[in-house]
Design a protein that fits this description.
Keywords: Membrane, Transmembrane, Transmembrane helix, Transport. By secondary structure, the chain is mainly alpha-helical. 72% of the residues lie in helices and 0% in strands.
Amino acid sequence: MSNEKVNYNNLDGSGAVTPPQSSSVEESGVDPVYEKKLIRRVDLHLIPILAAIYSVSMIDRTNISNAAIAGMMADLKLNVGDRYSIALLMFFIPYFLFELPSNIVLRRVGSAVWLGSIALAWGSVTIGMGFIYDWRILVVCRVLLGLFEAGFFPGSIYLISSWYVRYEVQKRLAGFYLLSIFIGGFTSLLSYGLMQMDGIQGLAGWRWILIIANKLLQRRKPFLTESDIEIIKSRIDRDREDSQADPLTWRVLGRHLSDWKLWVHALLFMSAAVPSYALAYFLPIILKGMGFSTGMSQILSSLPYISAVVVAFSLAWWADMTRVRAPFIVIGCLLIITGLSITAYSNSNAARYFGLFLGAAGAQNNVPTLLAYQSNNIRTNSKRSVASALQVGFGAIGGVFASTVYRQKDSPKYRNGLWATMGCQFMTLLLVAFMTVYFKKKYRQQKEGTLDEPLEGHPEFTYTL
């Protein structure tokens, strides 16, 4: 395995992705005002395009819940046994298995070629799902969808974390993720509109929900000069000194995977993925179980996501400003536990719906926060590539878990599923407490000069709590 040099000018979707071998600009020669404008230019070129395409990916994988209550459940006989849950979880098997291989391929062939190709592939599969008449073919399509979508999210996280310094990254990760969530939040409203197309061209309304137009990454002209690239590289070197490309060989891969901290971060992200996928797949179904009509369930499903975006981005901004991560993960967990408890046990539909707002806010907060938590506590380009793929891959396991614990026989309150989701948040609280103690211990040893080896291979590196 080898890697290419990064062309920073092309990270908006038209070039390779690992940092270049080159000298950095002297800190004293950088105009702070120009540097700030430069980062804003990067923001506008990088974040929106990644968010827009990822929103299509999320819509493609989660609109099955909207299609389910719009008639697909009956037409494909998904209400027999656990067929619906099987169709959900089969997506995550290839999604988990191909995260890391995809990031390795992305480093070799470049972001435009790889991300554009897999976007075209998953779009074709999703359109085809609108024309199936057998639930088993649906399962096959979900497997293919998982295969093709596996690479986009970890590839995007890798790109974003490579562009910014540590205490800028959570706002950017939140912007990327929450913008895609905001766009995806209107999926239910779109689905309600598409349901009105029932009968057009002889197709049921739920089929039109699945037949969605998909767009690809488009090549853009370079937006940075050579001096701009040098400024970006110097910022990264001043922050963590890893703008230099390091080869990803099998030995390096094994060394990275032997770092137990990466597996803890992966478990944390798995727990964060459970409420996110649970709400995506079962929110319209839970609302319909409250007695709302199909159309009203579609409409009401969007509102918790809109408020969640505001809450989560505000917390991300605060987290970057205070330069801490763990307290904000705790806030997210408490919101999820409180909200889902209300939804599980309240007898008032208004209160149960309010609980979903709290749960959605906590879930959407913890995804970018945990991504930033890992990104801030690792170094080197190759490790970032491996770590992001492993972390997001475990998110797929969270999706499998969410797909299976919300059982049809527990409808309409799904208390077992809600408790399983809350249990993951209690595990997160324990793991974050453990990591905080560990990081503080290492920081104390670093100050005392008693460390056996430098943190992350650099004498001045410190962990972010």
